C-alpha cells in the first residue's frame, strides 16, 4: 500500500514567520499535487509538480519535488492570516484515476 | 472553471434512515470520486467511477453504495445510516488521462457535513 506521510500535522505560527510542510513516501509518483482547504469547504488545487527536482513558486509559496519523485515540500515565506487552512499533498502513482492523499497539515497563522 | 456541486452543505439524519448524497459536475469529466474526511484520518476513498454505470470500491466501501446513471452525476447512498457515518463527505471529479499536460488533478465540491443522530 502506498502511503504519503505529511508533517507536521499541526502548525501554529505568528504572522510574518516562515514555515515548511513536508510530504514523504517510499514510493515514486509520476506527479504530486498540493491542495489547500478552508474550513467548511472542499480542497482547492494550488500546484502540481511533475519533474524530479522541480521548483514552482506561487507568490509567497514555494513547492519542491524531490529528485527521486518520492517527496515534496511546501515553503511559505512571511505567512499571513489568509494562509490559514489545511494543506494536503496528493501523489499520483500513475495508475488510472486514483490519488494517494497525505493526512494534511493544519496551519494557523495568528495576526 | 470546473464546477462540482453537492446537493446539501449540511444534513442531519437519524440512525437507520436511507441517505442520498448527490454530486454533479459540469466539465464532462469521466472520473468521479466520493471521499469522507475525518479529523486525524484525512481523506478516505469510499467509491469511485470511471464511466457511466461503472463503479469501483475504494478503501472504505462498507455501509455505502453508489450510482452513476449519467456522466455528470454520481450519487452516494447510505443504506441505513449509523452514527459512525457522521462525517464530512467530499465529491471530486477529474478528466480521463488522455492529454499530454494532464496530471490527474481532482476538482472537489464544497462538501456535505452529515450528522447522524
At a glance:
With 111 residues, chain A is mainly β. Chain A has no helices and 11 strands. Chain A has one domain (7-110): Immunoglobulins (Immunoglobulin-like, Sandwich).
**Share of helix of chain B, binned:** under 10%
Number of E strands of chain A: 11
Radius of gyration of chain B: 14 Å
Taking the sheet with the most strands of chain A, its summary is: 6 strands, mixed
Shape of chain A: globular
Q: Tell me, what is the CATH class of chain A?
A: Mainly Beta
**Strand pairing plus helix content of chain B: what structural class?**
mainly beta
Specify Rg of chain A, calculated over alpha carbons: 13 Å
> How would you sum up the global shape of chain B?
globular
CATH topology of chain B: Immunoglobulin-like
Oligomer: heterodimer
Question: CATH homologous superfamily name of chain A?
Answer: Immunoglobulins
CATH architecture of chain B: Sandwich
Look at the structure and give the CATH class of chain B: Mainly Beta
Share of β-strand residues of chain A: over 45%
For the report, how would you describe the main beta sheet of chain B? Answer: 7 strands, mixed
Taken in chain order, the helices and strands of chain B follow as: EEEEEEEEEEE
Domain count of chain B: 1
On the 0 to 100 scale, the average pLDDT of chain B is 92
Count of runs of 4 or more consecutive helical residues of chain A:
0
Helix percent band of chain A:
under 10%
Task: Give a verbal description of the structure.
The complex is a heterodimer of chains A (111) and B (117). Chain A has strands spanning 5-7, 10-14, 19-24, 31-37, 44-49, 55-58, 61-65, 71-76, 85-92, 100-101, 105-110. In chain A, a hairpin with a 7-residue loop joins β9 and β10 (100-101). Chain A has one domain (7-110): Immunoglobulin-like, CATH 2.60.40. Chain A starts with a strand and ends with a strand. Chain A is built from no helices and 11 strands. With 111 residues, chain A is mainly β. Helix content of chain B is 0%, strand content 51%. Chain B has no helices and 11 strands. In chain B, the strands form 2 sheets. In chain B, strands 2, 4, 5, 6, 9, 10 and 11 form a 7-stranded mixed β-sheet that branches. A 4-stranded antiparallel β-sheet of chain B has the order 1-3-8-7, with no helix packed on it. The model of chain B has no long low-confidence stretch (mean pLDDT 92). The chains are: A mainly beta (111), B mainly beta (117). The interface between A and B is medium-sized, with 24 and 27 residues.
